[in-house]
Amino acid sequence: MRDQQAQTSTIHVKVTVQKDGDKYIATYDPKVIQVYESDTIINFKLDEPTPDDIVVKSVSIIPKDQEQLSTPSISKNGRQVVLSDVNSLAQTLSLSFEYKSKHDHALQLAKDGEMEVVYPQVENNPPGMVAMAMLAVDGGPENNPPG
User: Fold this and answer.
1) With contact defined as beta carbons under 8 Å apart, do 32 and 123 qualify?
2) I need a labelling partner for 66 at 20 to 30 A (CA). Which of 38, 90, 122, 132 fits?
3) CATH code of the region 4-138
4) For the chain, percent of residues with pLDDT exceeding 90
């Protein structure tokens, strides 16, 4: 019997926050996180060249009434965020990160060029949905007997 922990998939997202004039720019790699397995862990980590004094203040999920993603857990040092995705519904979710300096000053983030889109995004593709989509494209099996 396999251990449940061994079956859990983890996706790592590299986060960088850099000063740009009087504002900061946050980038995510990948910007759109494709999830194909159930019960997937998504791990965000602040990475170089992010200055050591910048930490995650909070993370909001959009839409708020979603039931796919767990409440984000921010590490004690503020440099890592972990959440889980049940991935049972094909849906696109956005995450809105707020950052601050360790001196408790909120950082003013520059807006992404795509103002109406909040990144990073989680694109849920539940197991079995890919096969169903392929059937829909192919027309599926014929249910009309000859005659």
Assistant:
1) yes
2) 132
3) 2.60.40.420
4) 64
End-to-end alpha-carbon separation of the chain, Å? Answer: 50
Query: CA-CA-CA-CA torsion for 92, 42, 13, 33, nearest 10 degrees?
Result: -20
Say yes or no to pLDDT of 137 above 80.
no
Q: Please check the confidence at residue 79 and state whether its pLDDT lies above 60.
A: yes
The DSSP H or E segment spanning 5 is helix 4-7
- pLDDT (0 to 100) of residue 112: 59
Q: Which residue has the higher pLDDT, 65 or 140?
A: 65
Closest CA to 109 of 24, 19, 33: 24
Token couple for 14: 């590299």
Q: Which residues of 50-73 are buried (b: 16+ CB within 10 A; e: fewer)?
A: beeebbbeebebeeeeeebbeebe
Partners of 69 in beta bridges: 85
Domain boundaries, the chain: 4-138
The predicted model scores a pTM of 0.80
- The answer to whether the beta carbons of residues 93 and 100 sit under 8 Å apart is no
Contacts of 57 (CB under 8 A, 6+ apart): 78, 98, 99, 100, 106
| Mean pLDDT, the chain, integer | 85
